[in-house]
Every structure is written in structure tokens, then in C-alpha cells.
Amino acid sequence: MATGSGRYLRYILFAFFGILILYFISTSSLPSYTPSIAEAAGKLSWDDIKVPVTPPPAEKPAADPDAVADAFTSKPQNPQLGTSPLPSITPLSPSELSPAAPGERVNATFVTLARNSDIWEIARSIRQVEDRFNRNYNYDWVFLNDKPFDDQFIKITTSLVSGKTHYGEIPVEHWSFPSWIDQKKAEAVREDMRRRKIIYGDSISYRHMCRFESGFFFRHPLLHQFEYYWRVEPSVELFCDIHYDPFKYMKDNKKKYSFVLSLYEYVETIPTLWESTKKFIKAHPEHIHPENSMAFLSDDGGDTYNKCHFVSSTPMTPSFTTNTYQWSNFEIGNLDWLRSKAYIDFFESLDQDGGFFYERWGDAPVHSIAASLLLPRDDIHFFNDIAYYHVPFTHCPTGDDLRLKLRCHCNPSDNFDWKGYSCTSRFFDLNKLSKPVGWEGQA
Length: 443
Ligand SMILES: *[C@@H]1O[C@H](CO)[C@@H](O)[C@H](O)[C@H]1NC(C)=O
Fold this sequence. Notes:
Blueprint: H1 2-27, H2 34-43, H3 65-72, E1 73-74, E2 86-87, E3 108-113, H4 119-132, E4 140-145, H5 151-160, E5 165-169, H6 183-195, H7 204-215, E6 228-232, E7 237-238, H8 246-252, E8 257-259, E9 262-264, H9 273-283, H10 294-297, E10 308-310, E11 330-334, H11 335-338, H12 341-353, H13 355-358, H14 363-374, E12 380-382, E13 388-390, E14 393-395, H15 400-405, H16 424-430
Parallel strand pairs: 3-4, 3-6, 4-5, 8-12
Antiparallel strand pairs: 1-2, 6-11, 7-13, 9-10, 13-14
Helix pairs in contact: 4-5, 7-14, 9-12
Pfam families: Glyco_transf_15 (PF01793)
Transmembrane segments: 7-25
Keywords: Glycosyltransferase, Membrane, Transferase, Transmembrane, Transmembrane helix
């Protein structure tokens, strides 16, 4: 009992002295903390960021990045402190948030084909790629469009990309019907595909896009200065950290083409693609590499196509199509290979046959067939550790340890790699690669 009331008394004394000390501090001549915050605010202005701060337009304040900047720069809380705005965020300059990874950079860039209306889907993709990888590497980013980019697109993408951004317009010859295409015939095909409900079967712009990605993007003047590219499409989801530089991996290991998912193409969109390919093989045997991956494409030594392709491309974004379905795709490759005589001869041979318009050839099977036939097997790489989502398929790395180390947020049972509709097993078998530990559990 006695010790209990003694403790009680001590608490009261403690509280009393505490209040006394606080009183002395508040009335003493110790400098107040407020001026130094104001000073910091003066130094940390939003002008440090490359996005120019201008007053937000009245009609769309919420979507405007300037409005967001304004929200962070609150009004001065004390009128005597003057006009410098007080930031309500921790005062760190943005560049300090992402220390660059050590080591040299490869001659490489991200590349994105987009329209102005894709801005928010693209912003999401950039943010994912920056957070998981590029914030530490600061690679450049090239944006291409068949129309000029508008101010909003440029402003937002510039603020998100940690490297330099480049904006280019696609020359009209790369985004239109070539002279030899019979317009009547092409229109009849689109009408027929519309009736048969083939996805994007009636879209003209989708066809221009597939042809552009197959044969022209790597020849755009903005890409001449680079050796490697990484294609990023709208609404990409990256599930894991990318703990090394994939560009450097490609260069150090002399890889020319890479993938994370592979699957079978819709046969209705490419009925004569293999006939055209065989025609090219006959006309240009010099371009077919002796150590090719024909076994990835064909089960009968090249007579027929098994429809396998690496998922590389064919973005399906709302603005290029009338549908809301999306495909977010992955592709890291060597631009000099795409600019080689072998690849250009292959593309031009296919283009002459007209299947981009008389059927609906996608750039994924075109790139995949080219990589499989023109490159030695060793030049194609499967990135198990880059986790990617491509509607409706997920590549979630095989291997429990790997997923934990990379801080992945994908469900391993969603992994598509070893399922029946994937061609990835075929790639492993053909290259005599051993599959990652645990693959049987996901088949
Ligand atoms: C990057 O690669 C391109 C294409 O191969 C080349 O033209 C350019 O000179 C290279 N740039 C540097 C800095 O090496």
C-alpha cells in the first residue's frame, strides 16, 4: 500500500516539473523553429523539378500536374513569414530519392508507341517501370505517335521518366497503305472479319500499328542513336523488382531478342503468314541461320507453322481499336539486328505479300519468326526474373526464393509459363535448358 501511494506522488511531482520546464522553454529567447522551415521552403521550390509550374487551368484542376504541385505548396501559415510557400512534404529534392545504380550504361532506350489519349495508361506503365527499375538507371525514353504529342502528354511523361525523353512523329509512309495494296480487297477482309468477330479484325489503325512495329519503329530517326530498345506499352504491370540491368545482360551476353511469355497465335489472323515465310526462306536461304530455332515454330521441320510466338508486341489499347481489351507486352531487343539486311529483307518480303492488310498479321508472330529463323538459338533470351502481366496471361517467376528476393507481388499459381497454351517449355527443350526448380508444380 505504502509503495503504491509513494509512486503516485512521484508521478504528480514529475508532471509538475515537466510543466514548469515547458513554461521556461516557451518564454525563453531560444530561436523558434519556424523561420528555418521557411528558409528551407525558399530553397526547395518546385522550380527544381523539370516540369514548369504554371497556374492550373480552371476547368480540370484535379487531373493537372500543376494542381498537384499546388496542393503540396500550401499557403504560408504565418503571414509575417513572407511570401515563400511552405511545402508540406519532407524537404528532399526529388533527385535525392533515387540514387543511381553504379556502373556503366548501355546504349539503350525505352520506346513507347502511344496516342495523346493514352496518357494515363502510359503514365501507369512508366511509373511501374521507373519504380521497379529505371529510377536507378535513368535510361532515356522515346515516344512515337502518328500525330503530334500535346502539351499534357509531354509534361506528364517528362515528369515521370528519370532519363531524357524524346518525342517523335511517325512519317506518313510508315503509317498508311502501301501503293500495291488493293483497297477494295482490304476492305472486304475487314468486313468479313468484323462479321466473324475476330478481335480487331475490322480495325485499320490496328493494322497500321502492327505493320509499323514489324517494320518501321527501329528505323525512326529518334532510334538511330540507340543500340538496344525496351518496348513498353500502356497499362503494364511489373510484379517484381528488376535487380540488375537487362540491357547490360543483353549486351554482355550478345543477346539480340528476348521474351517473358510465349503462346499460340489466333490462326484466323495469319492464315497465309507461313506460306509467305516459306517463300522468303526459298528466296533468301543466305539469311536463315544454320543454328536457328525452327523447332520452336514448326513440329514438322518447317512444313507447317505451330503458331508459337514470343509475346513481344501487339499492344491492344482502346485508342487504337474500338475495343477496351488490352495487351501489355514485353520486348527487349537489339535495334541493329532489326536494321540488318536480313531482317529488312524479311519484313519487305512479307509486306509485299500484303498480309498486314489482307489478313491481320501481328508484329508478335513476325518478330518471333524472324528471331527464330535469322538468329542463332543462343541469341534469344528468356527473362525468368522479369515478371509481367499480359492480359490474360501472367509471367510470375518460377522459384520461391527468387520471388521473395525480388519482392514480387504476383501469385505463383497464376504463372502461365508451364501451362498447355504456353510455348515456353518448347523453348527450354529445344535449347536444352534446364527448367527452373519448381516448374512441375505450376504445370
Ligand atoms: C549507339 O548505337 C547506335 C546504333 O548502333 C550508334 O549509331 C551510336 O553511335 C551509338 N552511340 C554510342 C554513344 O555508342
